[in-house]
Specification:
24 helices, alpha/beta
């Protein structure tokens, strides 16, 4: 950087983010963060600001940006309520290990402890913002000395991108943002550098893993989101070929292994496929890659896991008993591949990927049909973001990941409405058609980010599968609490009609059938900007969710394939 003299701290921040490869800053403005937005504006397009409707969605935009690009996502918000609205989104990034940098405005330092509006300094009885953000971040610092930003920015970015990845937070008082930062008069390397290369795994643990895997006739690999964040898909595929293994994925990682590969046996856990348990029971070893195997991914597999040696390649130890290889993911996979003899066999008889039986839904159009229509319309390089609830469980179970795009499910915290911001962040970062698949409950939480997509002409297709309910709650009431109470069943809402009236420039379709939905999606694929398609469903349709099906009296090992107008519905 060349500087004739001191520059404002915020100008330094904006410039260094651009030099580090950050293309967008997502957020919501306010008095105590406006100087940063001014600095971003003056980068002449090197970094662009995107104003969201809510700070939670601004975080998920940064999260989706990071998942789609494997780069650092950045969010900026003001003090007070704006800062607090960041917390749920940061907890998702923390739990899912997504590198996000939050730049949070604060009142001027001279007013701390003086009754300032939105004071969160911890002085004179005010709450301390740092104590709020520290538990949901890998690094958190309050910047009190302007010249310290050089070191603190470097530490924040490096920590966010070092395993275990996650959010970093810098608290920026308004006067410190405006203060001059002394810089060398000649160009120097940016202090925001890539994280150091990960250390290799423990040699003793590697030896133990090689012995177990080398002696196993049959191996099941369960791969997680960490494969995507480490850009380790190639290394995973090479190790799978070397082992002759079959592959399952966690619910948030359908895109880390080709869903059409003959070795793919489906999704593990409570929204997954019976094939996974069958293959695990035939296996002599289970290799976890990029996942600690949390409950959502291991539900229904506990008994089989207890009888199978487990190896875990992940920055953190697994939630199940096993040998942990905690080095860098790509390096560890390469080490294992190099140490193992190639084999060609695999688990016999996994065949076509069968789906869990879906109970009847009174004749209404089924998620099975709708998701088949979406599958047929998806561009091969599209990104897919799937929200929570019945829609999410069905999509995870039934919808294959695009061959060359992300398939993202936020299971770290499972927050409803995550997808609206995340899909926009991914679309703006990559320019590729992005699908957001959500229910009406998620839409009513954060669906007004459709306005943001319209404002920035983001190539996002919002598919709203509307059952006029918090239907997963309705199902829980029916199955576990003696009958639905009715408070989670809503009056009918015309989401398509409302969106069309609010946003005349938005391409909107109301689909009455799967065929109409398919045609509408094909049309939106050819559009450069955002679109929305809505379709109604029965709130009492039971999704392919293992606890529900068990309580409903169906045996999850009954794996007859579901059928729709295009033939068998399966993944793989």
């Amino acid at each position: 950087m060349t500087a004739a003299g001191p520059i404002r701290l915020v100008d330094y921040l904006a410039t260094e983010l651009g030099r580090a490869g950050v293309s967008h800053v997502f957020g919501v403005g306010g008095a105590n963060i406006e100087d940063l937005y001014d600095a971003v504006h003056h980068t002449a397009g090197l970094v662009r600001s995107v104003v969201a409707k809510h700070e939670f969605s601004a975080v998920t935009m940064a999260d989706g940006y990071s998942r789609a690009t494997a780069r650092l996502g950045v969010v900026a918000a003001t003090s007070g309520g704006g800062a607090m609205n960041l917390v749920p989104g940061l907890t998702e990034a923390y739990a899912s290990r997504i590198p996000v940098l939050a730049l949070v405005g604060q009142p001027p330092t001279a007013l701390e402890g003086q009754g300032a509006f939105q004071d969160s300094s911890g002085k004179a009885g005010s709450f301390d913002a740092r104590e709020v953000f520290e538990p949901v971040s890998r690094f958190c610092a309050r910047v009190t000395e302007p010249d310290s930003i050089v070191e603190l920015l470097a530490r924040a970015v490096t920590t966010a991108q070092t395993d275990p990845k996650g959010p970093a937070v810098l608290l920026l008082p308004k006067d410190v943002q405006q203060a001059p930062v002394a810089l060398p008069p000649t160009r120097v390397d940016s202090p925001v550098q890539p994280p150091p290369p990960p250390v290799g795994p423990d040699a003793t643990a590697v030896d133990r893993a090689v012995r177990v895997l080398g002696a196993a006739d049959h191996v099941l690999v369960i791969a997680g989101e960490g494969v995507a964040t480490a850009a380790a898909r190639t290394e995973l595929a090479e190790l799978v070929r070397r082992l002759g293994a079959c592959v399952a994925v966690t619910p948030d990682a359908k895109d880390v292994f080709d869903n059409h590969d003959s070795r793919f046996v489906g999704v593990a856990g409570v929204m997954g496929h019976p094939n996974v348990e069958q293959c695990l029971r035939r296996s002599d070893a289970c290799l976890l890659v990029g996942t600690r195997l949390p409950l959502m991914a291991r539900g229904g597999l506990e008994a089989a896991l207890a009888d199978t040696p487990v190896i875990c390649v992940d920055p953190e130890p697994p939630f199940v008993a096993g040998t942990a290889l905690s080095g860098g993911l790509r390096e560890t996979l390469r080490t294992l591949t190099g140490r193992l003899e190639p084999r060609s066999h695999d688990l016999p008889g996994h065949g076509e990927l069968a789906t869990l039986p879906v109970p009847p839904n009174g004749g209404a159009e089924s998620y099975v049909h709708a998701l088949a229509a979406i599958e047929a319309a998806l561009p091969p390089d599209a990104h897919v973001f799937v929200d929570a609830g019945n829609v999410g469980a069905s999509a995870i179970h039934l919808l294959p990941a695009p061959r060359h795009g992300r398939f993202v499910v936020a299971v770290g915290m499972g927050g409803m409405g995550y997808t609206f911001g995340a899909g926009i962040g991914a679309a703006l970062a990559t320019g590729r058609r992005t699908y957001v698949i959500a229910g009406d409950g998620a839409f009513f939480m954060h669906g007004m980010e459709v306005h943001t997509a319209v404002e920035y002409a983001a190539p996002v297709t919002f598919v709203i599968l509307n059952n006029n309910a918090h239907a997963m709650c309705v199902t829980r009431e029916d199955l576990f609490q003696g009958g639905a109470r009715g408070d989670n069943l809503f009056l009918p809402a015309d989401i398509a009609g409302g969106a069309a009236a609010m946003f005349p420039a938005l391409d909107v379709a109301r689909a009455e059938s799967a065929a109409q939905l398919h045609r509408a999606l094909l049309r939106t694929n050819r559009s450069p900007g955002p679109a929305l398609a809505a379709m109604d469903f029965d709130p009492r349709e039971i999704p392919p969710f293992l606890p529900f099906l068990t309580a409903f009296g169906q045996n999850p090992t009954d794996v007859e394939e579901n059928s729709h107008e295009h033939g068998p519905v399966h993944v793989g």
